[in-house]
Design a protein that fits this description.
homodimer, 16 helices, eight-stranded mixed β-sheet, Rossmann fold, alpha/beta, six-stranded mixed β-sheet, Ubiquitin-like (UB roll), Metallo-beta-lactamase, Chain A
């Protein structure tokens, strides 16, 4: 494989992890980016708002970037776009709804005027440098999702996007079986395919299955129906609106992101009702209960979401009452179960009847299960296979399916983000590793919180801190005033007078036997650390401050 | 209902919440306690080790306490025993294994010699003051579990314990159908029944179902088999040992609590092998791989558990390798999914083959599902029903089953911990509310961490803290040295020189326009809070210290 005519595939996120999907495709002097997603922080990323990919690999060679291609409008595929576009310039390609949702994000960052957005449709073919990119429709939990067939100088690369083979999609648009089969006949060098549901047997059920549950619940509901789902699950909201219309109910939205996204989806014609037809909060309360449907955020129990606020009796416009019916139309994302359970408990306490995933078919996934994945493999019949979009175990399980489909073990590459692959028409091998770790966004800071700050936050979260301040006479070294002890998150200070007194004594003692002035701080720190542990079994962060006055 | 001849039932934990099960039964001058469990902290209880019931209600009338009765040996039923017995005195009744596990706990607190432990057997009848307590066997995920039939002056109260109707229990001991039916015929005034699995349809499968999976996995495993489960799931460990013996493998334990509990279970004769037959760590590594089974802690992905350490390559004795087979023989407890997923990913990365709940029948619950609950209701046919052992939604769903079984709505009481119930032979009504909240144990502190400390820990976890120290001349009010700025968990200090400089300037400015000396601190705090938010979008805890020297 010569250096010049190799294709490089560089996963920068979303491989071996969930979310922040991003991948670079390179050939010669040209580079494409596929998706620019964010992920939500893991539990141990304390205080972090969102997590985006490290794009230093891209910014270092920004002049090679020809385009950013978006497969669909979910956060984990478009959420990092503002951060990427504030560093590099490139036109952004996507379907109408995808770009609509991307624009909502860019507006929040005041970037909408600086970016070229180019709308594509399934079956469109774009020429971008040495690449010819053909879009094909796939079913997912949001309309207008596409996969990519990229003709490169070394062969055809198929990127599945997020997909499932829904036999009865809400918008009537099937995954493009014909195109996939045609690609398979043309000859696929490499398939990159969605691994998210590699743990689940069978086919993922049709979105239609949720419609049956909605029908059953709506037909029995005596009062208001409140449906919580993801603010980006446009397909689900379409279904709720359709069901509401059949039962003579009108629909309003609650929750910032839901209102914003659905206003846009409605304007673009995806919801089947115009923005003017949506209920205002006043109308939600003014209409008879049996004519009202409220669609809101909070299906993951997020404490500040509309549903959690309703459950706690803290939502400004909506007060729950007996007779209300709540549907949590989602499944828990791992890590959110406890918050969701608390919300469900509070909804029951408020008197509502609650339908959730353990009791009813209130949700189906937008990702294909094992049989969908197998079908994708068998339609495209790739020479090489790389499982993407999943955590490590999903990649392993997906690779087992590929083996069962007849792809030789040595042609399957289970890699993680940052591990480049190099392809020629005859070979595929591991390339170099590039930087592809997490960039943590905390408030206004992008990447300024790292290992040290997080480690301190962990210790602070567990045991708090204690600061001891001593003022010494610069010349004599004498202590000028009683040492000051401050603490938060360690013990309840008002009830801890004795401990504080002991701490002061430790400081005095440490200073009594003082050797060189520079050793004073370390001595105080050790003495106080030991005292705290011995008295409480806790290890707060200890900061001694010696001021020479 | 006269004050004297009423029976009081006071749930002190485990009703409307999972864990820390504890309930008081009172009549006249006598009180019984049923169970004394702990719960593990919820995610937002930062830094907390365990959570125990508030027993102030019991300690205030300690002289009335006749006995503590334990239904079985799980942490959520016996874990608070050392804390309770350090405050009140009473004999403890339980089956052999239950008391064995309780003794392990008491030893840790050096209380074993101060407590009277009295072993009972199913069908035993105890007279305790006005109560006659009959024990009956129920199936659960630990042998020697009992329910209670308590004859009181007002009628018969049945407490199910944690139960399921396993048709094929490991130890051959069925739940005591005959006794339950007899109780039903005798006439049950009140049933208190386990609600944990009220969300799940059907009967909970037999523990035997796991045996089939173990057989399948053991017969195909090329090397070592590593099984992670709860340290208290004695039934599961019994099965693993039985399977190991059939496949000519020997068994060793790894993980502190597993080793301790199983040594005791082995000594008492529950494991079918003596303590001497267990593999030492050296033997685990010395024997051929295909003769070794390791049973360990870590089925919930706990970061310091044996399995998580193995997955990270940090376990002292066991280093994973290709050919190892790992079984996570448990289901995720809500809140632990993320940790479990990380562990599974790391196990796959280490080259092991991993079997877990999404892929195989590696676990069945020890709690009955809806049909078990229904059967309990229909065998005992109680006049009044109170769902216990479950979070609020479980209680609501269990109460719906009771309604379906013909118990009138007004005879069903969905209450939460602390809500007393008063019964006569003819009536049941809500009594007073008593203190029954959480007592948080953090290190050596029992109950000293409360709302204020937790709130501070939350803020510290999210945004850290910043301390500004100024030394003023006591007389002139002049600043004596450059203000000192300290911070942790807020920004990375080494990269934040400019921010620290700005903070110092704010302090100078605040002091320049100083009014009364007492207002200086508040002024500095406001100025720095604003600076931090404006520069970083974060809100650290700000502590100004003004020292007058």
């Amino acid at each position: 494989m010569s250096e010049e005519d190799r294709l490089r595939i560089v996963p920068l996120g979303g491989v071996g992890e969930i979310g922040k999907n991003m991948m670079a495709l390179e050939y010669g002097e040209d580079m494409l980016l596929i998706d620019a997603g964010l992920m939500f922080p893991e539990t141990d990323m304390l205080g972090i708002d969102i997590v985006i990919p490290d794009i230093s690999y891209v910014t270092q060679q920004a002049e090679r970037l020809r385009a950013i291609i978006l497969t669909h409008g979910h956060e984990d595929h478009i959420g990092a776009l503002p951060y990427v576009l504030s560093k590099v310039e490139a036109p952004v390609y996507g379907t109408k709804l995808t770009l609509g949702l991307a624009e909502v994000k860019l507006r929040e960052h005041h970037l909408q005027d600086r970016v070229q957005m180019r709308t594509i449709q399934p079956r469109d073919v774009l020429t971008l440098g040495p690449f010819s990119v053909e879009f094909f429709h796939v079913c997912h939990s949001i309309p207008d999702t596409v996969g990519l067939a990229i003709t490169t100088p070394v062969g055809l690369v198929v990127h599945s996007g997020d997909f499932k083979f829904d036999p009865h999609p809400m918008d009537g648009q099937l995954t493009d079986f014909a195109k996939l089969q045609e690609l398979g006949e043309r000859g696929v060098l490499l398939l990159l395919s969605d691994s998210t549901n590699a743990e689940l047997p069978g086919f993922t059920p049709s979105e239609k299955r949720v419609g049956e549950t909605l029908d059953r619940v709506f037909s029995a509901a005596p009062g208001r129906v409140i449906v919580a789902t993801f603010a980006s699950n446009v397909s689900r909201v379409q279904q709720v609106i359709g069901t509401a219309q059949r039962y003579g109910r009108r629909v309003g939205f609650v929750g910032r992101s839901m209102v914003k996204n659905m206003r846009m989806a409605s304007q673009l014609g995806y919801l089947g009702i115009g923005p003017d037809e949506l209920l205002t909060p006043e109308e939600m309360n003014g209409l008879p209960d049996e004519r009202v449907v409220i669609v809101c955020t909070g299906s993951q129990g997020e404490p500040t979401s509309a549903l959690a606020r309703m459950a706690m009796g803290e939502e400004r416009h909506i007060t729950l009452r007996r007779g209300d019916t709540v549907i949590l139309s989602a499944e828990p994302i791992p890590g959110n179960e406890e918050l969701i359970n608390h919300t469900i408990d509070n909804l029951f306490r408020a008197g509502a009847d609650v339908h959730y995933h353990l009791l009813s078919d209130v949700h189906v996934s937008g990702h294909g299960s094992q049989e969908d994945q197998r079908l994708m493999l068998n339609l495209t019949r790739p020479r090489y296979f790389v499982p993407i979009h999943g955590e490590y175990r999903h990649l392993v399980l997906h690779s087992r399916l590929a083996q069962q489909s007849g792809i030789p073990d040595q042609n399957i590459f289970v890699v993680e983000s940052g591990q480049a692959l190099e392809l020629s028409a005859e070979a595929c091998r591991l390339g170099e590793r590039v930087a592809a770790s997490h960039v943590l966004v905390d408030g206004l800071g992008v990447g300024d919180v790292g290992h040290v700050v997080l480690r301190d936050r962990h210790q602070l979260a567990r045991d708090g801190f204690l600061v001891a301040i001593v003022a010494l006479d610069m010349d004599s070294g004498e202590i000028l005033v009683e040492p000051e002890i401050l603490s938060r998150g360690f013990v309840y200070m008002r009830d801890s007078e004795r401990l504080i007194e002991l701490a002061r004594e430790q400081v005095w003692q440490a200073l009594e036997h003082v050797g060189p002035r520079s050793a004073v701080s370390a001595k105080i720190k050790d003495a106080l650390g030991e005292l705290c542990y011995q008295q409480t079994g806790r290890r707060p962060i200890i900061l001694p401050v010696v001021m020479e006055v």
